[in-house]
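User: I'll paste a sequence; please echo it back and then give the predicted structure.

Assistant: Echoing your sequence first, then the prediction.
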Amino acid sequence: MFPKAGRKFPSDAGLVRSTYASLIAEILRTELGNSHQAHKTLMRWTGANERTAKNWLSGSNGPSGEHLLRLMRNSDRVFECVLKLSHRNVVLSDQMLAEVRNTLQATAELLSEVIEVRGDARKH
């Protein structure tokens, strides 16, 4: 439980000592920008009103409860941030390993195709 005097997260999770709201705002601005379209996207993702979406992007308030879950469903970076803040890096590592495996498989398949095409071209 966090002390009532502040809502700062400890930096031991590898994140800059910052507030929850500012961390989420930074991620959302990086992914969506700070335009009217970003507000609309957040509203569509979460069902929140425009003022709420603006507050999230500005960092004055952070999403809670159902809105946070909906953001995590639509943004991998928000999902990763929440995992890091909750010290669940192992889950994050498993997800990253699966992504690396999938990328390596796709690369191996592409290499096989290139080698096959080159082999066919040399035969002619």
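Residues 89-124 form one domain. The chain has six helices and no strands.
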